[in-house]
Design a protein that fits this description.
With 412 residues, the protein is an alpha/beta fold. The protein has helices at 7-11, 18-26, 30-40, 44-50, 73-87, 110-121, 138-141, 150-161, 175-184, 213-221, 239-250, 271-280, 347-352, 379-382, 387-411, and strands at 102-106, 125-129, 166-168, 187-190, 210-212, 231-235, 255-259, 283-285, 288-295, 299-309, 315-317, 323-326, 329-332, 355-356, 359-360, 374-376. A hairpin with a 2-residue loop joins strand 14 (355-356) and strand 15. The longest helix is centred in the last third of the chain and has 25 residues, at 387-411.
Length: 412
């Protein structure tokens, strides 16, 4: 389209040069197209599958002004990235000469991966520590299979490993180990994500059939859950809840119902995700909240009560409105706790790393925390946004860390 200002590029948190990579596809330069994408976003393959493009690049397409369908940017990006996978071409950059500097990255999700790639491009050693068996964070474990397979996530990580990024998996970093890493490394990047999904706080949550959305999706992705029968209730109305509901349908559940205490206009899931779930056959129960679980060792029903909204937008129960929803499975998707307990090591660190409601406070331009040796990005700083936002955080932090470490070197 030869857009003057390419609003799609501006709308992308990692600022992929969309017109440039599409033009290269048009001229049959698929490798060049893929390398244009990777130069801006090292996780360009997973983002082409998991990004909410309807509200980002495609949502900003100039064709909307003319009531036309936007350019299919995500599909074109997938096409370019798939071609790179098929040819096995190298990454568009190589590590710079070794600077002698080293960064420890805690967590192996998108933010840390993007940060590590930027560090390696600048000759800085990058060592990732993660508690799980496989790297990738939610890309590998937490995004529904129909959007992003584990194989696609790990394929990207193999590319990043080509840059010389080191991985220490099955390694839980506690406060004591963080103190040791702080002494050994020149800087620390925290990409620890969020913690466990919140519980309902009701008796019977330990019954068989009650699980949380992240465990449910992880089991689905690794093949531990291949079919599901009976009725499923998904509690929550965010994008993760939608993923769990759609996955339940695809696993063969007889009936899938999403339960939310407010109405569709207040749900945090994107509108296009909501429409997709309706097309999959998911039912919705609005303005209800769980008040009890019924069953004898295995869940049999979810007790709900209706809610109404007051003039000040608070919710109150409707008297005598309780009813039972027969279920065989309950999937909790009502938000995650913060995951910053490893920062409780030394008193000095706790005082220097400022938190706000459990989130790590950072300079949004650089990712630097209140302790200059620590940088952070991803869900532990923004409370849980999109993969591409985590990649953008990591990218900014990696560039800023390299500059900060270079300045430290100059000062010495």
């Amino acid at each position: 389209l030869y857009c003057f200002d390419a609003p799609c590029t501006t709308a992308c948190p990692t600022h992929i040069d969309v017109p440039r990579f599409i033009k290269k596809i048009a001229s049959d330069n698929l490798e060049g197209s893929a390398k244009t994408i990777l130069d801006s976003n090292i996780l360009g393959e997973s983002c082409s599958r998991a990004c909410p493009v309807d509200v980002l690049c495609e949502g900003a397409c100039v064709l909307h002004r003319y009531n036309k369908q936007p350019i299919a940017i995500a599909r074109l990006q997938r096409f370019a990235m798939d071609s790179l996978t098929e040819t096995g071409a190298d990454l568009p950059f190589t590590p710079a000469p070794d600077t002698g500097k080293s960064v420890a990255l805690i967590g192996g999700g998108p933010a840390s991966l993007a940060c590590a790639a930027e560090l390696r491009r600048r000759g800085i050693r990058a060592v990732i520590y993660d508690a799980r068996a496989l790297p990738g964070g939610l890309n590998t474990y937490g995004i529904a299979e129909y959007k992003l397979t584990p194989a696609a996530s790990l394929r990207e990580i193999d590319r990043i490993a080509q840059l010389g990024v080191e991985f220490h998996m099955n390694t839980t970093v506690d406060a004591a180990m963080l103190d040791r890493l702080e002494a050994e490394a020149d800087a620390i990047f925290l990409g620890v994500g969020l913690g466990a999904i919140h519980r309902l706080g009701l008796a019977g949550e330990e019954m068989t059939g009650v699980t949380n959305a992240l465990t449910f999706i992880a089991d689905y992705k690794r093949g531990a859950l291949t079919q599901l029968s009976g009725r499923v209730a998904v509690i929550g109305a965010g994008n993760t809840a939608i993923d769990a509901a759609n996955a339940s349908v695809r696993l063969g559940a007889d009936e899938v119902t999403m339960v939310y205490r407010r109405g569709p206009e207040q749900m945090s899931a994107f509108d296009f995700e909501y429409e997709h779930a309706k097309q999959e056959g998911v039912r919705f129960l609005w303005h209800v909240q769980p008040v009890g679980l019924k069953g004898n060792g295995k869940v049999e029903a979810l007790q709900l009560e209706r809610l109404e909204t007051t003039t000040d937008d608070s919710l109150i129960p409707v008297p005598n409105s309780a009813f039972d929803l027969r279920v065989d499975h309950i999937v909790l998707a009502i938000g995650q706790s913060t995951h910053t307990e490893l920062l409780a090591g030394s008193e000095a660190k706790s005082a220097k790393l400022k938190l706000e409601r459990g989130r790590i406070l950072i300079d949004r331009a650089t990712g630097q925390t209140s302790n200059p040796k620590y940088f952070a990005g991803g869900d532990c700083t923004n409370g849980g946004r999109e993969v591409v936002d985590a990649v953008a955080d990591g990218k900014r932090a990696g560039i800023a860390m390299a500059a900060w470490l270079g300045g430290q070197n100059a000062n010495h």
